[in-house]
Amino acid sequence: MSSPSRGNDFFTPMRFEAEVLDCEVEGSLPAALQGTFFRSCADRRFSPLYSDDTPYNSDGAVDQFRFYDGHVDYRSRYVRTERFLAERKAHRALFGRYRNRSTSDPSVRDLSHSTANTTPIVHAGMLFSLKEEGLPVRVDPDTLDTLGEWDFSGRVTATSFTAHPKLDPHTGELIAFSYEAKGDCSDDLAVYVIDKYGAVTNEIWFKAPVVSSMHDMAITDRHVILPTTGMVTSAEQLQRGALHWAYDPEVPAHVAIVPRNGTAKDVRWFHGTADQAMLVHTTNAWSEGNKVVLEAPVAAENFHSYFPRVDGKPNDPARYIPTMRRWTFDLDSDSDRWQEEILFGGMTVTSFTRIDDRYVGRKNRYSFMMMSDPSLPVNRDFADTLAVRVSNAWYRFDHLTGGIDKFSPGDSHGVSEMQFVPRSPTAPEGDGYLIGVVNDFRALRSELVVVDAMDLAAGALARVKLPFRLHMQVHGWWVPRAVLPFEPR
User: Fold this and answer.
1) Which residues of the chain have pLDDT under 50?
2) Residue pair 140/129 in contact by the 8 Å Cβ criterion
3) Distances from the Cα of 278 to the Cαs of 76, 227, 230, 303, in angstroms?
4) 3-state DSSP call for residue 405?
5) Residues 456, 446: Cα–Cα separation, whole Å
6) How far apart are the first and last CA of the chain?
7) Does the 7-480 domain belong in CATH 3.30.1510.10?
């Protein structure tokens, strides 16, 4: 047998769909793991039209891991978007630079450019695969067959839908928003409240102070928090044939506080600095009296190397590492500024952050993050890959004590974003498991790892091994079997 390829080969496109029943399990799967873990993945099937395009402009696929009675079944399918079907028919790439229709083949410029490759989410019994440049795409949660775009029975009138809606665990409501909601470069925002049955109960339209990437959001039991970023666009930028986004270091951060049951006149904007304008993913938010508290990893400069600066200068590595920050907005104050505290810093923090989802919108103690930890041992054959391309650890942060626990999958491994699964519906916060896919660059294989969320340092409880490497994951979603029933295949 020839020796395995070096780690960088791991990132070449897979271009496959697969099914594995009764996956090989090393260790013991906890009995509490009864449900389905979905992953949204990005995998480019055809070479891009432009060499400077971003990996975000890749076809979407959904992976499904079903846990039942100590067994795991795996299935993967591409999302059959309009884009996927057009390129399959042509047998080549037709769509141009990231979110720039003018660079696409004229035959497809009027089609949806969404790849549906960012986040899977289950609501009202429906599985959606989300990408913020288009409407949700419904996918059959059992077969993973694509059912088509979904506008919530005509009630979502925006042209796009966030990749990061929030599910309120107490009311069952799904809170979502749209930016550039009337098309490319529009300054329109729309907020949607969708009840547990999938019906839109409130729609709020208002204007943004800057047209920017607004990838994520947060909620409390009363409010929606929408942060802008320094990643901006314009009609002129698109007409030049550039990528949709470019980073402007002079653009400050703005945050909208939107009452969930309010109207446009109730929206209040707070304004920050350019050093606060790289908030991509939120951790959580909650209300304290008439104050709104948001926690999130925030950087002082662009950490998306795929998107250029508007001034053409290189990014500053000393400024684009996020720190975990707490922002407090006082709704009783006349000030349009917020207070900032740094909770965790001085480490190679990423922006991929998760919590125990039972605490979404309420004060939480623990958060979990995908990290790049230079202190961990690294196999010399994969040092370049681990240093540049991937994260190599999961961390648990204790926001009360400042304590940190971490899991390392191995010296030639990279981690995907993890998901927290509670030990039981009534278990205390953080008492449960982290699950997520780990990539073994030495073996060129992937495995799903299960770790005790309260003892990450103890290592993996179980590894669900696959006989091949997987598509590269963006985000994931866990659904208990009691919420989304299934019969083993």
Assistant:
1) 1-7
2) no
3) 33, 9, 6, 8
4) strand
5) 20
6) 34
7) no
Contacts of 361 (CB under 8 A, 6+ apart): 166, 168, 169, 170, 219, 220, 221, 284, 285, 286
pLDDT tens per residue, range 271-301:
999 999 999 999 999 999 999 999 999 999 9
Q: State how far the Cα of 455 lies from the Cα of 405, in Å rounded to an integer.
A: 7
Task: Give the pTM.
Answer: 0.95
Number of residues assigned to the chain: 489
Structure tokens at 247: 């980073």
Token pair recorded at residue 100: 């720039």
User: Which residues lie closer than 8 Å to 3 by C-beta, 6 or more apart?
Assistant: none
Choose among 370, 327, 325, 379: nearest CA to 352.
Answer: 370
Distance CA 275, CA 321 (A): 12
Q: What digits encode the pLDDT tens for the residues 184-219?
A: 999 999 999 999 999 999 999 999 999 999 999 999
| Distance of alpha carbon 135 from alpha carbon 40, whole angstroms | 15
Nearest-5° Cα angle at 443, 441 to 448: 75
Would you tell me how many other CB atoms lie within 10 Å of the CB of residue 269?
Answer: 16
**How many Å apart are CA 388 and CA 348, to the nearest integer?**
12
